[in-house]
């Protein structure tokens, strides 16, 4: 009996020692071991990873003693170590913009490490960055470097490739990046910098006849397309060397050329600087009829199509008509302070000036209203004034660039007013420049802005040789001893002043003329007197050529 009890006890002890243990099904037991994070130093000893099954199924007994698989050994061997690991982590963090991780991998990073990277990106408008590291090059046991290629995408400029080197060293058993500014870009070495320059480049669709840009603030924008158009060009420039690292492509230049002379246009535009009233200068080549300049603050292309009374500037046309009746520049004529057309109104000179009997040239130079009203009444009552203006100087409805007109007079008051450029006589500055050009060249021709007159243009009108020589002499006298003598006009200028009365407003100031082959007209709307206001502007214009 005793032997039976001992046997039972011994069997129980044997079962307790050799039987399987309890299965742990807690969530902690089912979790994978925490991953090991590389620090750039030596990795911990590897251990075989357990094979995980669903939580409800306990692992088989053999799983606890299974040897590591070949795949697990290969994966563990591929984890970078030494400088490779640090370089890999640094480049990954740089791509992600993780400056904190980058700084942690740097040996003694500057306090503004992250700010330097952010400013570089913001200041140079970097949109993206790609990095392509090369192979690690060992330099002894404790130093290494990684050459790398990078491409930054610069907003507005495109791809910006660069090459640099990431240098590393072993510090207290861990590999660290030896950062310097040139790691960011080679141009930052030795205190260098890079700046983004933004420049407004004019990109007009119309050029001058020389193929040049119109002058700045040309005052011709209503007449030519794209003069104020511009494009922004960008340039990455190395400082202090000035070497250009990346630049916008040069914008293509348009091929459209005008008849405008760059120098003449610049002179016309600057002559209007400081003129408070709306004004215009139009200049044309007297031989070809091509417009060489148009500076206009009147607005609405009124230098070409505006209609203004030309005042005494129209006496050029009146004189041409009077020459046809037998008068010459040397003919003696009266210039009283006032003159009354029989059974009609009285006309006066400026300030009531009485010059007595003078030559027609002197009357023209002094702008005697009374002379031209009386001679027109006595010689041109058969509508010859309107015919002369319309047939020989373009004062009619016609195709072309300029506008001007004169109507048949209804009574003697209107005839007298027409004779001195008032009443129905109206002209644009371009029309009056055409009149001056006709005197300079001896042929009236329509102004053009093309190489040749377009189809349907008005025919050219040759002027009588005696008319031309007489007008040239009289317009020269205006500048040397007449109403424009104090304007400072350069030698060789001939012209005619005009002060056109405007009801309820200040008079328009005119000066038309020519010098060599350049004819022109100046108008200052409600500017005052032609001699005191318009002629000095013309002098400024001509002196700038």
Q: What can you see in these coordinates?
A:
This protein is α+β, with helices and mostly antiparallel strands and 545 residues long. It has 17 helices and 21 strands. It has helices spanning 2-18, 27-30, 70-78, 82-96, 99-104, 113-123, 181-184, 262-271, 302-305, 315-323, 360-365, 369-379, 384-393, 412-419, 429-441, 465-481, 530-543; strands at residues 126-133, 137-138, 143-154, 158-171, 174-177, 193-202, 230-239, 244-247, 279-285, 291-296, 332-335, 338-340, 346-348, 356-359, 404-405, 426-427, 443-444, 461-462, 493-502, 505-515, 518-524. Strands 1, 2, 3, 4 and 5 form a 5-stranded antiparallel beta sheet that branches. It has a 5-stranded antiparallel beta sheet with strand order 10-9-21-20-19, with helices on both faces. A hairpin with a 3-residue loop joins β3 and β4 (158-171). α8 (262-271) packs antiparallel against α17 (530-543) and α10 (315-323) packs across α12 (369-379). It is rod-shaped, with a radius of gyration of 47 Å. Residues 1-80 have low confidence and may be disordered.
Question: What is the typical, i.e. mean, pLDDT?
Answer: 87
Radius of gyration: 47 Å
Q: What structural class is derived from the secondary structure elements? A: alpha+beta
Distance between the termini: 144 Å
Mind sketching the topology for me?
Layout: H1 2-18, H2 27-30, H3 70-78, H4 82-96, H5 99-104, H6 113-123, E1 126-133, E2 137-138, E3 143-154, E4 158-171, E5 174-177, H7 181-184, E6 193-202, E7 230-239, E8 244-247, H8 262-271, E9 279-285, E10 291-296, H9 302-305, H10 315-323, E11 332-335, E12 338-340, E13 346-348, E14 356-359, H11 360-365, H12 369-379, H13 384-393, E15 404-405, H14 412-419, E16 426-427, H15 429-441, E17 443-444, E18 461-462, H16 465-481, E19 493-502, E20 505-515, E21 518-524, H17 530-543
Antiparallel strand pairs: 1-3, 2-3, 3-4, 4-5, 6-7, 7-8, 9-10, 9-21, 11-14, 12-13, 15-16, 17-18, 19-20, 20-21
